[in-house]
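Suppose you are handed a protein chain with no further information: no name, no annotation, nothing but its sequence. What can you learn? This example shows the usual starting point.
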Amino acid sequence: MTRAHFIEPDWPVPSGVRALSTLRTGGVSTGPYQGLNLGAHVGDAPEAVTANRELLARAAGLEREPLWLDQVHSPRAVYATDWRAGIQADACVALSAGQVCAIMTADCLPVLFCDESGKSVAAAHAGWRGLLSGVLESTLFMMTAPPSKILAWIGPGIGRQAFEVGDEVREAFASQDAGAAAFFDANPAGRWQADLAGLARHRLNRLGLERIYGGDVCTASDPQRFFSYRRDGQCGRMASMVWLEE
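A reasonable first move is to predict its three-dimensional structure. Written in structure tokens, the prediction is:
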């Protein structure tokens, strides 16, 4: 039987908070999108994407459609109450139950948030451009609690060993914060291996958020479980989502 497969974050959230991050396994898509592709913008057959989203909804017990975003590597976060189909943003914040914040990735980091009282949740899409432009900061600013009262979980994303970047990326981060340079290792090709999850943790720590979980799973290194744009080019998308149960 075809199913939707996902992992649930290992983080100490209050009861009533649900979160998951999908795997590529299961689903009905074929070819380069083989498995549970949830992205409608990558060239997969629309009927396959629809079927995969329905499989996920049943497997996760979702009563409402996730709030899918048109992600553009921006710092923009929106409240779930302001969501509309096709809205361009890279993070979603929900302050009430039943609104499923969702973002799609295939190497970029999915970062999920929850305040310790279980009154607000958020999901952010954090590739290097989003991190640099402040998507995590924008998301935290819109939540109801200060960073010291918030938990974060960094989902599967490209690892340092697989993420090669040029001087311009390292210099862009270091020009904002000299401490960011520590998350880039020189390689024999004269370029840099970037620790995307480390950069995310560093930025969150600087904001006062200390309780950070996950961040140790590389999408590019595990073709059986994850889509990876850097590894494959044309590929599907996983989804990470968080919501307050009704």
